[in-house]
Amino acid sequence: MKHYLSVKDIDSLPDWVSEARKLKSNPRAFEYLGKGKTICLLFFNNSLRTRLSTQKAALNLGMEVMVMNFGSEGWQLEFEDGVVMNQGKSEHIKEATKVVSQFCDIVAIRAFASLTNKEKDEAEVVLNGFTKFASIPVVNMESSVAHPLQALADAITLDEQNTKAKPKVVLSWAPHPKALPHAVANSFVEMMQLQDVDFVITHPEGYELNPQITKDMVIEYNQKKACKNADFIYVKNWSSYSDYGKVLSQDSDWMMTSEKLGNAKFMHCLPVRRNVVVEDAVLDGEQSLVIEQANNRTFAAQVVLKKILES
Ligand code: CP
């Protein structure tokens, strides 16, 4: 495998999940694979889980790790070709990626959507810039439109927790005071398309995700109806896609509660705002899987890095 940029780079989900679960039971089994190799983690945005789990995964595989908060510490990058660089941007993506490629064997990038320019966000200028000009494999640690490491961790968690042949899984929008990207929801939807699940997406009208991603998946605008008899409810906020990047509603009726959760397991990628997105009783209750999901981030990253190192 050359790069891990989206869920579409997974050639066999059952094999990857099974391999991740084996790595979880013996994390250091392939420590020899990364000996003498270095991964560079470049963050254009904040992180807790992605940063620590990807670092942990690389260490489990015997790799050296370099981390840079590029957004605050790196030079401002120019991505356009043929630009006269006489304004604020000091370095072109062409030189930056070629330089980074000399210092490490794999580069992982986090670069969120701006939520102000749909066309630029969908062009994935940072991730695709690195993929185009770097001479080493690139891993997506959350880009403008995708968070495939999170989606793989979620698939591992579902595999561990599911007891049914075809569970009902709900992706529910929840309120949030800030405009958040679509990446987590997009990759979760794509992951559900690889699974044998009864999948329903629920959100207020105006919060439809990119229809090229949701395709013909079921959308139910009544959250209570959508959540009825669910086995897993994945809660996430995202901003409007059609009215790009806008917060159209902060309706607290959409917050996840114990009543709406019923007997379902609760999932969220974290970080989460308590009593805005989900009430305390859910997060503190036994049906919450959020800590297991975060733990599985290590083994999702580890299976990805292992496949890159092996190829
Ligand atoms: N879920 C997730 O990606 O967490 P961080 O933003 O803390 O990395």
UniProtKB/TrEMBL annotation:
<comment type="function">
    <text>Catalyzes the transfer of the carbamoyl group from carbamoyl phosphate to the delta-amino group of N(2)-succinyl-L-ornithine to produce N(2)-succinyl-L-citrulline. Is essential for arginine biosynthesis.</text>
</comment>
<comment type="similarity">
    <text>Belongs to the aspartate/ornithine carbamoyltransferase superfamily. SOTCase family.</text>
</comment>
<feature type="binding site">
    <location>
        <position position="142"/>
    </location>
    <ligand>
        <name>N(2)-succinyl-L-ornithine</name>
    </ligand>
</feature>
<dbReference type="Pfam" id="PF00185">
    <property type="entry name" value="OTCace"/>
</dbReference>
<dbReference type="InterPro" id="IPR006131">
    <property type="entry name" value="Asp_carbamoyltransf_Asp/Orn-bd"/>
</dbReference>
<feature type="binding site" description="in other chain">
    <location>
        <position position="110"/>
    </location>
    <ligand>
        <name>carbamoyl phosphate</name>
    </ligand>
</feature>
<dbReference type="InterPro" id="IPR043696">
    <property type="entry name" value="ArgF'-like"/>
</dbReference>
<dbReference type="Pfam" id="PF02729">
    <property type="entry name" value="OTCace_N"/>
</dbReference>
<comment type="subunit">
    <text>Homotrimer.</text>
</comment>
<dbReference type="InterPro" id="IPR036901">
    <property type="entry name" value="Asp/Orn_carbamoylTrfase_sf"/>
</dbReference>
<feature type="domain" description="Aspartate/ornithine carbamoyltransferase carbamoyl-P binding">
    <location>
        <begin position="2"/>
        <end position="160"/>
    </location>
</feature>
<feature type="binding site">
    <location>
        <position position="75"/>
    </location>
    <ligand>
        <name>carbamoyl phosphate</name>
    </ligand>
</feature>
<feature type="binding site" description="in other chain">
    <location>
        <begin position="147"/>
        <end position="150"/>
    </location>
    <ligand>
        <name>carbamoyl phosphate</name>
    </ligand>
</feature>
<feature type="binding site">
    <location>
        <position position="236"/>
    </location>
    <ligand>
        <name>N(2)-succinyl-L-ornithine</name>
    </ligand>
</feature>
<dbReference type="InterPro" id="IPR006132">
    <property type="entry name" value="Asp/Orn_carbamoyltranf_P-bd"/>
</dbReference>
<feature type="binding site">
    <location>
        <position position="176"/>
    </location>
    <ligand>
        <name>N(2)-succinyl-L-ornithine</name>
    </ligand>
</feature>
<dbReference type="GO" id="GO:0016597">
    <property type="term" value="F:amino acid binding"/>
</dbReference>
<comment type="pathway">
    <text>Amino-acid biosynthesis; L-arginine biosynthesis.</text>
</comment>
<feature type="binding site" description="in other chain">
    <location>
        <begin position="47"/>
        <end position="50"/>
    </location>
    <ligand>
        <name>carbamoyl phosphate</name>
    </ligand>
</feature>
<feature type="domain" description="Aspartate/ornithine carbamoyltransferase Asp/Orn-binding">
    <location>
        <begin position="184"/>
        <end position="305"/>
    </location>
</feature>
<keyword id="KW-0028">Amino-acid biosynthesis</keyword>
<protein>
    <recommendedName>
        <fullName>N-succinylornithine carbamoyltransferase</fullName>
        <ecNumber>2.1.3.11</ecNumber>
    </recommendedName>
</protein>
<feature type="binding site">
    <location>
        <position position="273"/>
    </location>
    <ligand>
        <name>N(2)-succinyl-L-ornithine</name>
    </ligand>
</feature>
<dbReference type="GO" id="GO:0019240">
    <property type="term" value="P:citrulline biosynthetic process"/>
</dbReference>
<keyword id="KW-0055">Arginine biosynthesis</keyword>
<dbReference type="GO" id="GO:0004585">
    <property type="term" value="F:ornithine carbamoyltransferase activity"/>
</dbReference>
<dbReference type="GO" id="GO:0042450">
    <property type="term" value="P:L-arginine biosynthetic process via ornithine"/>
</dbReference>
<feature type="binding site" description="in other chain">
    <location>
        <position position="297"/>
    </location>
    <ligand>
        <name>carbamoyl phosphate</name>
    </ligand>
</feature>
<dbReference type="InterPro" id="IPR006130">
    <property type="entry name" value="Asp/Orn_carbamoylTrfase"/>
</dbReference>
<feature type="binding site" description="in other chain">
    <location>
        <begin position="269"/>
        <end position="270"/>
    </location>
    <ligand>
        <name>carbamoyl phosphate</name>
    </ligand>
</feature>
<keyword id="KW-0808">Transferase</keyword>
